[in-house]
Design brief:
The chain is an alpha/beta fold. The chain folds into two domains: 128 residues, translation initiation factor eif-2b, domain 1 (Four Helix Bundle (Hemerythrin (Met), subunit A), Up-down Bundle); 227 residues, Rossmann fold (3-Layer(aba) Sandwich), CATH 3.40.50.10470. The chain is 39% helix and 18% strand. The chain is built from 13 helices and 18 strands. The strands form five sheets. A seven-stranded mixed beta sheet has the order 8-7-6-9-12-17-18, sandwiched between helices. A four-stranded mixed beta sheet has the order 13-10-11-16, with helices on one face. Helix 2 packs antiparallel against helix 3. The longest helix has 36 residues. The radius of gyration is 20 Å and the shape is globular. It starts with 5 loop residues before the first strand and ends in a 7-residue tail after the last helix. The structure holds 5-S-methyl-1-O-phosphono-5-thio-D-ribulose (MRU). The site of 5-S-methyl-1-O-phosphono-5-thio-D-ribulose (MRU) has 18 residues, from helix 2 and strand 11.
Length: 375
């Protein structure tokens, strides 16, 4: 039984401190699944580029990388101005995942209150604590989600296995370790439950086809990659027991923002009485907003991600080819919002709750009872 996430049998986190004690190493996710490459980040600019170009991605990992990026920023300039410059530069990398802001605020608040001579050391201690906290949160999401999967397994729709559909990559690659949506799946697999995962390809960047399929394969979890528009059809034929996705930002009322296409899966799930669950770490809750459709900023990304596709050619080389007619306009919204009425439950590190202000406030009383803005 594997107790942590492995690549070719060796345990890895997605981000760690280099052996020199100051650089930061990450897995280059733009190269997966064809190559496993480790990149060394030595400057603030390296960290900014890694987040922007999606060398690292996934809400929790974006947060952890921002925290380590803050350390690199402090090595360059630990003055008060340095703190503000580092904060603003990292905050501008990607707009939707709230973990970025959460980690940066934590770093800024803690570092502002101490002497500049102590800031570098303190920054590394904070970043390491943020990374460790993410691992503990995700492991706990796995334990709470396991209970749900055990129940569903008792009444699974097909005799062979428990079929779970997921969208995008909310596995260990999207976090520091374990993953959010995939953590309960790994826990179920480790318990001997016969799980099988339908992996949405997740156009345009194909995080499902490239990343989720790869990490499930590395862990030995049965899976099948499907085109993004297949899930509803499978649900109509009793081939999906539940959907589990991750989230980049969940409002305090329970609206869930996640990778573009998640909303359509939630609609299909509701129409077919398939439970739709979301793996939700506490730092992904935005306590300042209620209405996700209105208030969550949706990242607009490069048209090339839609107009082109990259993959391995028959000769082994990695190539990018154009899919659309020359000159056709393209729009590339990276996320959408699933309203809370379509969400069966939120699987958090503190337990499973209803996607509602009351549900979240029960699990996070110290945060959830703050007066929220009215809708
Ligand atoms: O654009 P990405 O790849 O960063 O988007 C990632 C997702 O949408 C994930 O589902 C989300 O961050 C949850 S990760 C545990």
């Amino acid at each position: 039984m594997l107790l942590s996430m492995n690549v070719d049998g060796k345990h890895y986190r997605t981000i760690w401190l280099g052996s020199d004690g100051s650089s930061v190493e990450v897995i280059d996710q733009t190269k997966l699944p064809h190559e496993f490459v480790i990149l060394k980040l030595t400057t603030l600019e390296d960290a900014i580029r890694a987040i922007k170009t999606m060398v690292v991605r996934g809400a929790p990992l974006i947060g952890a990388t921002a925290a380590y990026g803050f350390c690199l920023g402090m090595c360059e300039d630990a003055s008060d101005e340095g703190i503000e410059r580092t904060y603003s530069a990292l905050l501008a990398t990607r707009p939707t995942a709230v973990n970025l802001q959460w980690a940066l605020q934590k770093m800024r608040d803690e570092l502002s209150g101490i002497e500049s001579s102590q800031r570098v050391e303190k920054a590394y201690a904070l970043a390491s604590a943020i990374a460790d906290e993410d691992v503990a949160i995700n492991e706990s999401i796995g334990k709470h989600g396991l209970g749900l999967l055990k129940d569903l397994n008792e009444r699974r729709r097909q005799p062979e296995c428990l079929n779970i559909l997921t969208h995008c990559n909310a596995g260990w690659l999207a976090t520091v370790d374990w993953g959010t949506a995939l953590s309960p799946i790994y826990a179920a697999h480790n318990e001997g439950i016969p799980v099988h995962v339908w992996v949405d390809e997740t156009r345009p960047r194909n995080q499902g086809a490239s990343l989720t399929a790869w990490e499930l394969g590395q862990h030995g979890v049965a899976h099948t990659v499907i085109a993004d528009n297949v899930g509803g059809h499978l649900m109509q034929h009793d081939m999906v027991d539940c959907v589990i996705t991750g989230t980049d930002r969940t409002t305090c009322a329970g609206d869930v923002c996640n990778k573009i296409g998640t909303y359509l899966k939630a609609l299909a799930a509701r129409d077919n009485d398939v439970p739709f669950y979301v793996g939700l770490p506490g730092p992904t809750i935005d306590w300042t907003i209620q209405d996700g459709v209105r208030d969550i900023p949706i990242e607009q990304r490069d048209a090339m991600e839609v107009s082109h596709i990259t993959g391995r050619a028959a000769d082994g080389s990695i190539q990018s080819v154009q899919l659309i007619p020359e000159g056709s306009p393209v729009r590339n919204d990276a996320f959408d919002v699933t309203p809370r009425r379509l969400v069966t439950g939120l699987i958090t590190e503190r337990g499973v709750c209803e996607a509602s202000p009351e549900g979240l406030a029960t699990l996070y009383p110290e945060l959830g009872n703050a007066p929220a803005p009215t809708l």
